[in-house]
Structure prediction request, 239 residues.
Amino acid sequence: MSKSANQQISKAGAWQRLAPILPLTAGVNGAGHLTIGGCDATELARQFGTPLYVLDEATIRAQARAYRQAFAAHYPDSSVAYASKAYLSLALARLLAEEGLGLDVVSGGELFVAHRAGFPPERVHFHGNNKSPEELAMALELGVGRIVVDNRHELQLLSDLAARRGVIASILLRLSPGVDPHTHAYNTTGLVDSKFGLPIVTGQAEEAVAEEPAVAEAVVEEPVTEEPEAEAPEAEKTE
Prediction:
């Protein structure tokens, strides 16, 4: 076998090994350059500089559909949400909305991007254990589907804000089960003294719900597809 043929086989083998982690539209052009969605990656780097993030629409849509179909097959009353802290832009938010996904946001900035992109507010979940009064007010005004509450201070603040507006805030209550998974400290977020969530074993979770009538629609499960109706804004709209 010729040297050239051996090189081609070697390249084919390398490509097969890389295929599972590459975008669906990835390929190699005649110049030997990586292509994504038909675009030459070398030319993209030359045009926009590096580091450069390139998102493949076909891959994102395929993955979104795969997740939704898998969950629907086993858990019909469920929803799939994208964590916007990974990356969010107007174009990506619109794409995710078209694919029927929910959206987890963790800041007023991410919520603003979702709003500007026209993302359905009822499919937004607002996470974060240190939300400001302004961010919570923004969430109420935009009619987000669920505000994820981490502590009693936030619960009281949200209750006051909701009462002033004459609305009931729909929330997900984050609970701390008091379980040590014996893993890395950064991943150990379910301990009793964790800053994430209200502890169950101390009774604080039950006490918090009982004290706050303005957030009486609280639920303590994961987000589901059935969301309370919320008026969409006039605009374009988990640790």
Notes: Confidence is low (pLDDT under 50) at residues 216-239.
